[in-house]
Specification:
By secondary structure, the protein is mostly helical. It folds into three domains: about 5-35 and about 45-295, no CATH class; about 335-420, Alpha-Beta Plaits, CATH 3.30.70; about 430-510, Alpha-Beta Plaits (2-Layer Sandwich), CATH 3.30.70. The protein is built from 21 helices and eight strands. It has helices at about 5-35, 55-65, 75-85, 85-90, 95-105, 125-135, 150-175, 180-195, 205-215, 225-230, 230-240, 260, 285-290, 315-330, 350-360, 365-370, 405-410, 420, 440, 450, 490-495; strands at about 245-250, 295, 375, 390, 430, 460-470, 475-480, 505-510. It has a two-stranded antiparallel sheet. Strands 3-4 form a two-stranded antiparallel sheet. Strand 6 (about 460-470) and strand 7 (about 475-480) form a beta hairpin. Helix 2 packs parallel to helix 6 (about 125-135) and helix 7 runs antiparallel to helix 8 (about 180-195). The longest helix has 30 residues, at about 5-35. The termini are far apart.
C-alpha cells in the first residue's frame, strides 16, 4: 500500500490547522487592537469583515448602496470558484472554533460518530440564506444575527473578553494578596494597555448563545458549519463550479466507508457520485485516513457532474415568502411613531432606517468605545434593532474628541467623522430633573454637571434659584440649566451626576442631528415623515 499520497494529505491537514491558527490569531490581534490607541485615528482593524461576501451582499440589497470596502469579498468568491469552500475550512475563525470544540468533544468521547444517522438537514442553511436575502431585498437586514463574523465579534466583545478580564482581575488581586507587588504592577499595566470594556447589558445572554452554538457540536461535528451558517451556504452555491474535484480510484477503494464516516461536514466522499461538492471544506481528512490512498483531489478544468444538496422548491418559495412577510412584523414598533428616548446612536450614525439597513450588530464600535458607553440595544430600537449600538450614559459617556466608533464600522452604518467635525454633531439632548437635582430640590451647592460639560461655551449654565427648605426658610443657590441648542448629548453630565440611583440630569435622543423629526417639538400634519 502506497503511503505517499496519505502523507501528502496528512501534511495538508497540518497545513490547514496552522492556517486556522494563523487566521484566528489575526482575528484576535485585530480584536485586541480595536481600542483607544492614544491617538485620534485607528487602523483598519475591521478588515476581516470586508472579505465576507454575505455581509456585502445583504448590505447592498437592503440599502441599495455599494460600500467600496466590500470589493475585497470578490477575492473570497474567486477563491471559492477556483478551489471550493477553502475559506470555510482554512480561513474562517468561527469555523476554526467549531472544529476545535468538535475535536475536544471527540477526544473526551462526548461526541460519538455514528455509522448510520439519518439526521442531516444540510438544506437548513440554504433556506436561512434565502430568508435573509429576500428580507434584505425589501430593506430588512437581519444578517447580523446569523453571519459568523458578526456573531463571533459580538460574542467576544460583549461576553468572552469581559469574562476573561474578570478572571484576570481576580488573578491580579491574588498577586497582591501574596505580596507579589512587582508582578501585580506589571500585570496591571498590561491589563490597562489592553483596554477591554467589561460592562455590557446583555453579556450573559450573548455569552449563552455562543456557548449554545459550541455545545451543538455534541450533536454533530461542526454543527454550525453543516446546518446553520448562511455564509457557508452562499459560498456553497459558488463552490459547485470550483475546479478542485474529489477523485475516488475504484481499483484501490476497499469500500470501508471511513472517509464518509469521518467527514467533518457530511460531504459524503464515498460513493463518489454522492459527494456533495457544495459541502466539502477541503479538510482532506478523507484523503489522510484512506488506508489505500484511493482518494485524491486533482485540479480539473473541465466540468464534471457532482451531487448537490437536495432543496425543495416548495420550501424555497415558502422561505422567500417568509422573508418578505417578516418585514412588516419586524417593524411593528412604537419607535416608528416616536423615537425611543434611550435610542441614542453613536455620532456619525446614519438616519435610523438607513442605519438599520447597514448595521450588522458586530460590536466593533462597542469594543473601541473608550468609556464603555456603547451598549447592545434590546428593545430601544424595535425588533430589527436588537444588538445594534446605543449610548448608555450611566455606563459611559461619548468622549468629546473621540471618533473611533465611526472609524471601525465595517459597513458604513456609522459614517467616518473627523475629530474637528464631531463638535457639530448632536446625538441627543440633556434634561434636568428639578425634583432630583441637589441645588433645585435640596438647596445644597452642586456644580458637577456644569464643570464636566465639554462644550464651549458650555451647554450647561448656572442660574440662581430660590429654594424653600422644610423648616420654611429659603436659600439661594446656583442651579444647572441646559441650553438646548448647545448641548450635543454626549452624556457626561448624566454619567458624572452625584445622585446615585437615578441621575438628576439625563440624556435622551431628541434633537439628534441625523433626524429631521426627532426634535424637541413634535411635528404634526400631513406629510410628516417617520422618526426613523
Amino acid at each position: 500500500m502506497s503511503r505517499k499520497k496519505s502523507k501528502t494529505y496528512r501534511f495538508l491537514q497540518l497545513a490547514r490547522i496552522i492556517s486556522q491558527l494563523l487566521f484566528f490569531s489575526l482575528f484576535f490581534i485585530l480584536l485586541l487592537q480595536t481600542r483607544f490607541p492614544g491617538e485620534d485615528y485607528i487602523g483598519n482593524v475591521e478588515i476581516f469583515f470586508h472579505f465576507d461576501p454575505l455581509i456585502g451582499l445583504t448590505s447592498f440589497l437592503a440599502s441599495h448602496l455599494i460600500f467600496s470596502a466590500f470589493l475585497f469579498s470578490i477575492i473570497t468568491l474567486v477563491l471559492t470558484l477556483l478551489l471550493g469552500r477553502v475559506f470555510c475550512g482554512w480561513i474562517c475563525p468561527f469555523g476554526a472554533i467549531q472544529q476545535f470544540f468538535s475535536f475536544l468533544f471527540k477526544k473526551l468521547k462526548w461526541l460519538k460518530i455514528k455509522s448510520q444517522d439519518t439526521f442531516s438537514p444540510k438544506a437548513w442553511k440554504y433556506y436561512l440564506l434565502v430568508f435573509l436575502l429576500s428580507a434584505a431585498l425589501l430593506g430588512l437586514n437581519l444578517v447580523g444575527f446569523f453571519d459568523p463574523f458578526s456573531l463571533l465579534y459580538r460574542s467576544f466583545v460583549t461576553s468572552l473578553l469581559p469574562a476573561l478580564a474578570f478572571i484576570f482581575s481576580a488573578f491580579l488581586t491574588l498577586t497582591y494578596q501574596l505580596h507579589l507587588f512587582a508582578l501585580g504592577d506589571t500585570l496591571v499595566q498590561f491589563s490597562e494597555n489592553l483596554g477591554v470594556n467589561t460592562i455590557f447589558l446583555q453579556a450573559l445572554g450573548l455569552g449563552l448563545i455562543f456557548i449554545g452554538i459550541a455545545l451543538l457540536n455534541l450533536k454533530k461535528e461542526r454543527f454550525w458549519c453543516r446546518y446553520l451558517c448562511p455564509l457557508g451556504a452562499l459560498l456553497g452555491l459558488f463552490a459547485r463550479w470550483n475546479r478542485l474535484k474529489l477523485h475516488l480510484d475504484e481499483d484501490k477503494c476497499i469500500q470501508c466507508g471511513l472517509c464518509t464516516l469521518q467527514c467533518e461536514t457530511d460531504a459524503i466522499p464515498y460513493p463518489q457520485e454522492k459527494w456533495a461538492i457544495t459541502e466539502c471544506v477541503y479538510c482532506f481528512t478523507c484523503g489522510a485516513i484512506c488506508p489505500t490512498s484511493a482518494i485524491t483531489f486533482p485540479f480539473i478544468l473541465r466540468p464534471q457532474p457532482a451531487a448537490m444538496v437536495d432543496l425543495s422548491r416548495r420550501k424555497l418559495l415558502a422561505t422567500t415568502l417568509l422573508g418578505a412577510l417578516a418585514v412588516p412584523f419586524f417593524r411593528l414598533s412604537p419607535s416608528r411613531v416616536r423615537a425611543s428616548a434611550k435610542r441614542i446612536r453613536p455620532p456619525g450614525a446614519l438616519p435610523e432606517e438607513q442605519f438599520l439597513q447597514k448595521c450588522v450588530k458586530c460590536g466593533e464600535c462597542m469594543k473601541v468605545c473608550p468609556t464603555n458607553g456603547l451598549q447592545p440595544a434590546l428593545t430601544e430600537a424595535g425588533p430589527e434593532g436588537v444588538w445594534t449600538p446605543i449610548l448608555v450614559p450611566r455606563i459611559g459617556h461619548c468622549e468629546y474628541y473621540c471618533t473611533l466608533c465611526s472609524q471601525v464600522c465595517p459597513t458604513g452604518a456609522i459614517q467616518p467623522l473627523r475629530v474637528e467635525d464631531k463638535a457639530t454633531v448632536k446625538i441627543g439632548t440633556a434634561w434636568v430633573d428639578k425634583n432630583r437635582c441637589i441645588p433645585w430640590k435640596i438647596g445644597e451647592p452642586c456644580l458637577v454637571c456644569e464643570e464636566h460639560c465639554p462644550v464651549s461655551p458650555k451647554a450647561i449654565q448656572l442660574v440662581e434659584t430660590t429654594v424653600q427648605l422644610p423648616d420654611g426658610s429659603t436659600t439661594t443657590q446656583r442651579a444647572p440649566f441646559v441650553e438646548l441648542e448647545r448641548c450635543t448629548g454626549c452624556g457626561i453630565c448624566e454619567n458624572k451626576c452625584p445622585v446615585v440611583d437615578s441621575p438628576a440630569i439625563y440624556v435622551t435622543s431628541v434633537g439628534e442631528s441625523r433626524s429631521a423629526t426627532n426634535q424637541v417639538l413634535l411635528q404634526s400634519g400631513r406629510g410628516e415623515s417617520s422618526p426613523y
